[in-house]
Amino acid sequence: MKKKVLSTLLAAAMVVSLAACGGGDQGGQTTGDSAATDGGAAADGADAGAADAGTADAGTEVDPATTITIWVANEVVDFTKEQADTFMAANPDYATFAINIEAVGEGDAAGNMLTDVLGGPDIYGFAQDQISRLVGAGALMQLTDTYAQFVADNNDAGAASAAKMGDATYAFPLTSDNGYFLYYDKSVVTDPTSLEAILSDCEAAGKNFHFELNSGWYSPAFFFPAGCELTYETDATGAYTACNCTYASDAGVNALKALINLHKSPAFVNGSDVSSATNAAAIVSGTWNSGAAKDMFGENYACAKLPTAKIGDADVQLGGFGGFKLLGVKPQTDEAKALACLELAKYLSGSEVQTARFEAVGWGPSNLEAQQSDAVKSDEALSALAEQLAYTIPQGQYPQDYWTLATGLGDSIIAGDYDNFTDEQLLGVLQDFQTSCESYATAQ
């Protein structure tokens, strides 16, 4: 059965020309938010080319024909070695292969891989916003129906979607732990499900609500659920070839008005860093700030998915971006090695290992069964994020100019520049924003 499945897989994989995979890195944006970088999909950077920590002896020459090389973030090198050893011990059919593990974080893996696909690792972790570049460069093996079904059946919808390009699946999800949600003081906030109720409670108590309005990472929380789109398409080199943006629309005007109304609240304070928050009763941030939030709120610490907000005439569930770590397999020419790589990647992304990885280093699982473990469910921040990720889209690649432009839009809102604008004037602001976004795409 495995041989039949793999033959189909290899037939598809061989269509990709490995000889054409040496394109250089064009510097795609991994994330637009420094806090998200600290705790998110691209958080676990490590020096490329770090010493081997796997079965092969460090410093020795690796034979690519008989060695499976794996790139993972530095903090999980030892963990991955232990898990790979367990897998190999339980699968003597793969005993002809040695395991070589190197420390290369998800934020660096794609750029390094695209520099030299042929010389890159066989299995590697990467941030989901790099998947289009890696697929375009032939650096990811498309998963067959069997493995694709494993991904779809065993992971939350956001992670499974992040592992796909179109209808095809190219990676095994590892985490669902990068995004933002609500931390709040439950002695002040009586209804965390409504933004208007939260602001009312904060205003009545003389407390602050923190939201990073001048950020291209956070402001889509209003624009996307209102019905707006802002995504980019890239080629294999990471060059931006198209921008799909509908901010200049009635939906965009409604979202912009909601952000303007937020800034007008006396409780509003711009920001998402809990350690810098002052007099806060609520703050929108991510899991990387959970420790600081617990310290700040003490026994009144609580978490929830983002609230609804009045956008236009409707109460709309706020959404935004989600971030995921993925595990990819490089196309292989040897059938036996391809099968070993796929089975090992599947094992490393499975329920048991995701649960153990959470317990070892705190990475939030994407696996549905692992998410239901007592250890994960007891983590209030991860539980809130898991709920929120159902309302997000996986963050793709965005040019640096987008993040700068979004900051400028937010700064103008905070300064009150648009407080008395008509809908027509606001539409003009968004048309300028959209035109600029579209100009960053470099299609020839």
In short:
40% of the residues lie in helices and 16% in strands. It has 444 residues and is an alpha/beta fold.
Shape: globular
Query: What CATH architecture of the largest domain do you see?
Result: 3-Layer(aba) Sandwich
**End-to-end span in angstroms?**
46 Å
* Total discrete domains: 2
CATH topology-level name of the largest domain: D-Maltodextrin-Binding Protein, domain 2
Q: Write down how many β-strands occur, each being a DSSP E stretch of 2 or more residues.
A: 18
Overall average pLDDT: 87
> CATH homologous superfamily name of the largest domain?
Periplasmic binding protein-like II
Rg (CA only) = 23 Å
* Total helical segments: 18
Instruction: Name the strands of the widest sheet in spatial order.
Output: 2-1-3-17-6
Question: Can you tell me the residue ranges where pLDDT is under 50 for at least 5 consecutive residues?
Answer: 1-55
Query: Which structural class best describes the helix and strand composition?
Result: alpha/beta
The biggest sheet amounts to:
5 strands, mixed
Using the coordinates above, name the CATH class of the largest domain: Alpha Beta
Q: What does this entry look like structurally?
A:
- Helix 10 crosses helix 18 (423-439).
- This protein is α/β, with parallel strands linked by helices and 444 residues long.
- It is built from 18 helices and 18 strands.
- The radius of gyration is 23 Å and the shape is globular.
- The strands form 6 sheets. The protein has a 5-stranded mixed β-sheet. It has a 5-stranded mixed β-sheet with strand order 11-8-12-7-13, with helices on both faces.
- The model is unreliable at 1-55 (pLDDT under 50).
- The chain has helices at residues 2-13, 34-39, 77-90, 106-115, 131-136, 145-154, 157-162, 195-205, 220-226, 250-264, 290-297, 335-348, 351-361, 368-371, 374-377, 380-388, 400-414, 423-439; strands at 67-72, 98-103, 123-127, 164-165, 168-169, 172-173, 181-185, 208-211, 230-234, 240-245, 268-270, 280-285, 301-304, 308-311, 314-317, 321-322, 325-329, 393-394.
- The protein has 2 domains: 2-18 and 31-177 and 323-393, D-Maltodextrin-Binding Protein, domain 2 (3-Layer(aba) Sandwich); 185-319 and 399-439, D-Maltodextrin-Binding Protein, domain 2, CATH 3.40.190.
- It starts with a helix and ends in a 5-residue tail after the last helix.
- 40% of the residues lie in helices and 16% in strands.
